[in-house]
Amino acid sequence: MISSLENIRRPFFVGIAGAGMSAIAQYLQGIGVQVAGSDRFFNEGKAEDIKAKLEEEGVKCFLQNGEGISSDTDLVVVSTAIEDTVIEVRKAKDLGIPIIRRSELLALIAATKKTIAIGGTSGKSTTTGMLFDIMRYAGKNPSVISGAGLVDLIKKGKIGNAFVGSGEWLIIEADESDGSIVQYRPEIGVLLNVEKDHKELDELMKVFETFRDNSKYFSVNRSNSYARKLSVDAKKDFSVDDSDSEAGIKATAFIQSGFHISFKVNGQQFGLNILGRHNMENAVAATAAAVIAGVSLSDASAALRNYEGIYRRTQVLGKKDGIWVVDDFAHNPVKCAAAIAACQPVSDKVVAWFQPHGYTPTKFLRSEFVHEISNALRDQDEIWMSEIFYAGGTAVKDISALDLINDIKALGKNAYFVEDRNQFLNEARAHLNEGTTLLLMGARDPSLEQFGKDVYNKL
Does residue 5 contact residue 11 with C-beta atoms inside 8 Å? Predict the structure, then answer.
């Protein structure tokens, strides 16, 4: 059993192109560990940009064929998506090399720092990025391990989801989907929200309760009814609800003007170049954590004025012929609804396209998708879907995106299905006029970035 980082010198990551895996790989490489890894996408000629950036950092990348693992490998790291039949896993077992889950390794890393863990159903990556900017601005020199690339790091040629700072603080995303959040014992735990996603609400509440109990200091979003139930100290909590008089950090006076939002936090003016009320919540959460860590409200405000965003989180690709194109990672019901709502102040009409991922989660959340998306759409707005993204494996294909579209259409909303996403723009072109925002949503599929760029270029 691996109990600390001290003896890990030559780890091998199976599935290293994944957002969570590549972040930890870069972090370890940054602290002097010699990291290697493989990915099935490399076999298929995909994720070449990620491979190149990992190699620039000194990480050795291999095809997923077993050749990268040798007797010198002292640890094999896998995610929950890696099955025992994968050749590297079989080879590691044959050679007697310890195998550890990504989340277990992240817990070992977190134990070496004063860690701030960001948890919740939605907004973790954005809040992590915002908090990283605040802590940097305040001179804390933090490290970060994120589930998405920070735009300002991407601009420097990085993948953008990891950074090794010289300070004592580490900011991480704490994932509830696989239950790994219970492994962390952070200095500060932040709970953004609790919504049905991956698990039923009662099961999620038990997971987040353990997260709370494992945190030295804990801050919850009192505007979310379920998160509020887990409050420990209201003065460390945050709220965007004017009626809450107990929260220590309160946001008021929200205004969205185009692609800019402004609001006040305990009287301090904040302004960010980003979309949506949900991003005010993320900013207030980041501010609450920073205050607990000793940062002033004025520093938090000044830092976020220059916040450049997170890759594929309400990311504006540009404007063509009067049509804005926005790319977003939204993939659960609440996130999709929030992304649609965030685009509505920008344009007279929103045409949203969504590619669900995974047959099991889509079936599990079918009614929630229909409810949340339908409620978010105005009379003039539209929702389009292409078929569910299939990543391989043994999933039963017993639901289609068409089922969701038919359910939404039955509620009187403008809903359309185009099975092949490559035909989407041709089918939807007549629906796109000056004054429209085209919102592209989806996750887990690594080709979505290029798809978004292609749609914009062909518009």
Answer: no
